[in-house]
Amino acid sequence: MYPELLKIGNFSISSFGVMVAISFLVAYWLCLKEFRRKNLSEDLLGNLFLAAMIGGIAGAKLLYLFENIPIKEILQNPVQHIFARGGLTFYGGLFGAILLTWIVAKRSKLDFWLLGDSVAPAMAIGYSIGRLGCFLVGDDYGIRSDLPWAVAFPNGLPPTIETVHPTQIYEALIMLVVFLYLWKIRKDIYKTGYIFSLYLILAGSERFIIEFLRNTTRSSVPNLAIAQVMAAVIILFGLYKLFRLKSV
After folding, report:
1. Helix runs in 38-111, H state only
2. Within a domain: residue 102?
3. Residue 134 burial by CB count (10 A; 0-12/13-18/19+): exposed, middle or buried?
4. How do residues 23-73 score in pLDDT, each as one tens digit?
5. Structural domain range at position 136
6. Cβ atoms 118, 35 nearer than 8 A
7. Contact of 90 with 114, CB cutoff 8 Å
8. Which residue in 194, 197, 220, 223 has its CB near the most CB atoms, within 10 A?
9. What does pTM read for this prediction?
10. What Cα–Cα distance (Å) separates residue 134 from each residue in 65, 166, 175, 182, 230?
């Protein structure tokens, strides 16, 4: 574990923060290549990326707080909880980013699904890189495991001295494969919305399966975590869009 890469006095640079920054930079570079290939405005990309960053980070933090911290504790010390190390939930970030991106697309009079196709591979690799940050900081790990590659996180969030599944690494590897696949087929001829729908199905399926190896917040649906319910919604939405594309 390397939760802090550099500390000067009270100022520290966390490994998670660095990996998140790298994920955004890589995602932006890939999106820029796609926007140029599709003759889309680079200025629009800047607006979209800013909206996605704001919506993604804010949504991820808000959903994490909603799932894990009693509202009374948040209200007593909101600054401490909002700016605490770690504590981001992917689906909150995804929904927040999609919402603000949709607003920008609507104001710019552009097809949201066209933009979705353009950013889907970047979203996959961005998530993969971000999960490496979770591993470095000791967050979002799995249940107890005796496998040879199981890891303990004595300074994790929360700490554990038992060896557990490094689900962060599992997710990073799976989403790397998803990225490579989407990046490979992106130039093929598909109807608008196909690539983004495929991303939703693959990303949702990955998360749904991984949640069985994690102790996460349970939902009102028996034997399913909140993240799995959200993943199922995303998978169904992607499947619905693919069905609509094939029926047109």
Report:
1. 42-68, 71-76, 78-82, 90-107
2. yes
3. buried
4. 989 999 999 999 999 998 888 888 888 888 787 777 777 766 666 665 666
5. 4-185
6. yes
7. no
8. 197
9. 0.84
10. 17, 10, 14, 24, 20
